[in-house]
Predict the structure.
Amino acid sequence: MSAGAVGVRKRILIIEDEPDIVRGVRDALEFEGFEVLSAGDGRDGTRLAREKSPDCIVLDLMLPDANGYAVCEAIRGHNAVVPIIMLTARSQESDKIRGLEVGADDYVTKPFSVGELIARIKAIFRRLGRQTGVEEVIKIGTAEVNVRQHTVTRGRKTEPLTFYEVELVKLLHERAEQPVSRDELLEKIWGIQPHPANRTVDNFIVKLRRKIEDDQKRPRHIMTVYGYGYKLVP
């Protein structure tokens, strides 16, 4: 389904300094019916993210004036909800974890398939379109997750949640008390085929435990099912 088929064109912001990559991604996205904005550096990208309210951001890690981590943090400072997909030429696990920690929702390693990137973006919008019937507030122990505002409140502290953190909470909550495999979480939430070396789910679980558990080293609610996946004990 094209972006125009639902009547409202989704706006994608590309923050990337390589013209060939911007051109290729722009052409493919516009063919699919998306509106596309682009910026060649972090300063312009942050400004456009603030002024134009994109529906999704594709952010390169290596920019001429700043690294993508800093740009991601700056964007998250005024928009905790917009999905951010980070493009990186680095394949080290530590680089990807750092990207997730500063607020990126997903990452694609260069060289990448434009078709895969578009599939990830479309999957995000499909899930955002299925919000009806979802509980607005999910209680997990002493924490309350607001799935519409993308926040978690524990005691007097309220923190933002990224798009994929909310999706992870929602799916685990739908299957509360039941183990859900890493492979299923990866496929249903990120639209990624399972691979033994992919640690995306585990990295997001670590982030969620920091925000939801009273003691992240002794979790009582987001439980590991060893050799399989995770389960939620509300």
